[in-house]
Amino acid sequence: MSVDMVKQQVADLIEEASGEFDRLCQERHERGAEKYGPLKFLTANTLEEAMEEVLDLGNYARYTYIRLYMLNAQLDEKFGDSGIPTQNIGPMAFTPNMPRVDNT
Prior knowledge:
Helix content: 55-70%
Shape: flat
Largest sheet: none
Distance between the termini: 25 Å
Number of helices: 2
Number of domains: 2
Number of strands: 0
Structural class: mainly alpha
Order of helices and strands: HH
C-alpha cells in the first residue's frame, strides 16, 4: 500500500470519526430538547453541569489507567525481560515506509 493510500485512509477515518461525533452530539441535543425543552440550556447552570461531567471523565481516566496498569502487568508476566515483540505494533506500525523491527 502506498504512502498516499495510507494517508488517505487516515484522513477518511478522521473524517468518519468527526462526522460521527457531530451526529451523536446532535442526537443528544435533540433528545435533551425533547425531554427538557429546546431552550433549557439558557436557564440551566451549564458550568456546574460541565464540572460534574469533568468529574465523571476523571473517574473514567482512573478506571482506564487501572485497566492499562493491569494489562501491562499481564504483558510483563507473559513476556518478562525480553519485552513485547514490536513487529507491527506500537507507533512504528502507523508510520508508512518505516522498517518493522522484530524483537522475537
